[in-house]
Amino acid sequence: MSYTQRLLERQRELGHPVRVGVVGAGQMGSGLIAQIERAKGMEVAAVADVATQRGVDAYTKAGRSDITVEADLTRAAELVEAGRAVVIDDGLLMPKLPVDIVLEVSGVPEIAAQIAYASLVGKKDVALMTVEADVTVGLLLSSVANAGNQVYTICRGDEPVECLKLVEYAEDLGLTVVAAGKGKNNPNRPTDVPEDVAEEAARKNMNPRMLCEFTDGTKTQLEMCALSNATGIPVDVAGMHGPSCTVDELATTLLPVADGGILTTYPAVEYTVEGDVAPGIFVVVRSEDPVVTHELDYLKFGTGPYYAVYRPHHLASIEAHLSISEAVLNRSADFQTKTWRSEVTAKAKFDLAAGTVLEGMGGHHVHGWTLDADDSFALNAIPIGLVAGCTLKRDLAAGETLTYDDVEIDETRPLVAMRRLQDALLRTHVIG
To answer: What is the pLDDT of residues 137-193, one digit of tens each?
Structure first.
């Protein structure tokens, strides 16, 4: 039975649809609100945004007219129960409303992690769109959820989740996964700064820093790190190879060196540039059985024993609400950090002077670089998710990896405290 049929059956039984509380009504949040409002059996019960007019506008674009901006939490809860559209200005209060699941779309890792934690403590399921938060403290968040009766999930529609689905499909077929990853949508220019992409960002109606996070490679490093930590598949080399590759070349490029490919170890998480792979995701697999190989060749799947399982698209906000259905109906997460296999560290884009107050992702100072988690711990590297707002204690050369010893960090930040706790639990083998 489809999600839609089951959601409608649930609505008939309970007398109301799945109530979704959305935190963040920017570009992505607005699209999600519209999609959820179109979905049968669920509705956006409340929206939280520091700029409440954005919430009102997102509701209006989605066709709702029964909108109330409400500061009083008790009154807001009454409106939700009555099926009215409610806008509040504080996402941390969303778990206090009678919603079934909190959907975080802030795009800010510091906020996203707090929203997720507050939701889980408030006994609410939570779905994240901000993978940067998961790559920083996702193992802690998933452990908290799994210890109770809540669901913590990253949403469908983005490359890590959809690639995980291909990995699971390949494993279910009994094929050996050799490589898994995505095609990079943007150029790969590690020293890009927001000014370099300002004109393009304006055309796309994007924040220049967000676009810079894509073009300097940080976003790809984050997404593939998330995939690594959800599957346990490591990176082959620091930062990954990122070869130029077409779809037709996947099954001849992302192979072990011994078989003519580029991988020194496998399986490996990877990404490709140029070519025609983007915006798709892929898994390169090997058939271990000659009978199966013959059958796959006969079925025109490729020429064995290596094959590429390829999906040419990922649909972002259009698919995200599927994870709401999975969480509410099946009490299951589409995507969770399972182990701390990889870490996205921060490399200096340019020479940086002591005393510099560092910008975070998509800024002028650092770009993301994935290391094996054990190597990152040995280096004492600071995760890129914690860098914003830190002050450099020494001069740093371009290309150097930042460590905790290099910066003054505000230990009172909730995200820092959560990461410190996660690291302590990892080192004592309580989680991971």
So the answer is: 999 999 999 999 899 999 999 999 999 999 999 999 999 999 999 999 988 999 999
The distance in angstroms from the start CA to the end CA of the chain is 34
Say which amino acid occupies 355.
G
What span, in angstroms and rounded, lies between the C-alpha atoms of 357 and 181? 34
Do 212 and 296 belong together in one domain? yes
Residue 281 pairs in a beta bridge with: 182, 311
Residue 290's CB is within 10 A of a number of other CB atoms, namely 10
The CATH number of residue 76's host domain is: 3.40.50.720
Dihedral, 362, 364, 365, 367 alpha carbons, nearest 10: 30
What residues contact 414, with CB distance under 8 A and at least 6 apart? 110, 113, 114, 117
Report helix, strand and coil shares of the chain as percent, to nearest 5.
Answer: 45, 20, 35
pLDDT band at 27 (very low <50, low <70, confident <90, very high): confident
Domain with 87 in it: 3-154
- Closest residue by Cα to residue 283 from 134, 162, 186: 162
Residue 205 pLDDT grade (very low, low, confident, very high; cuts 50, 70, 90): confident
DSSP letter, residue 263 = B
The total of structural domains in the chain comes to 3
In DSSP notation, 85-97 reads EEEES-GGGGGGS
Q: Which amino acid is at 218?
A: T
- Answer yes or no: pTM beyond 0.90: yes
Residue 108 CA, distance from chain mean position:
12
The Cα–Cα gap between 416 and 386 comes to: 7
